[in-house]
Amino acid sequence: RCELKANSQLDGDITTGILKMDEGAVFSGKMQTGK
After folding, report:
1. Domain containing 1: what range?
2. Residues 11-19: what's their mean pLDDT?
C-alpha cells in the first residue's frame, strides 16, 4: 500500500507539472498574440 500511495503521489506530481506546462504555453501564446 505504501508503494501504491507513493506511485499515485508521483502521478499527481506529473499531472500537476503537465497542467502547469499547459498554462505556461497558453500564457506565452497570449503574450505573443498581445504583441
Report:
1. 1-35
2. 87
